[in-house]
Amino acid sequence: MRFVLVAVALLAWEAAARSGLWSPLLFPSLARIAWELGRLLASGEFILEMWVTLERALGGFALAAACGTLLGVLMGRSAFVAGLLDPLFSGTYAVPKLALFPIFIFVFGIGSLSKIALVFLECLYPIAIMTYHGARDVNRTLLWAARNMGASRVGILRRVVIPATAPFVFAGFRVAAPVAMIVVVITEMLSSADGLGYRVIYSLSSLQTDRMLAVVVVIGGLGYALDRAVVLLRDRLIYWEKLDTYYV
Amino acid sequence: MGLARAGLLLLALAAWQLASFGGLPSYVLGPMEILKDFAAALGTSELYEHIGASLARSLPGFALGTVAGIALGLAAGASRWFDRMVSPAVFLSYPVPKIVMLPIFMLWFGIGDLSKILIIALACFYPVFINAYYGARQTRTILVWSALNMGAGQARIFRSVVLPSAAPMIFAGMRVSLALSFVVMFAAEMINARSGLGYLIRVAEYSLRFDLMYVSLVSIAILGYAGDRLMRSVRARLLAWQGESQ
Question: Distance (Å, rounded) from C-alpha A90 to C-alpha A109?
Answer without folding.
Answer: 29
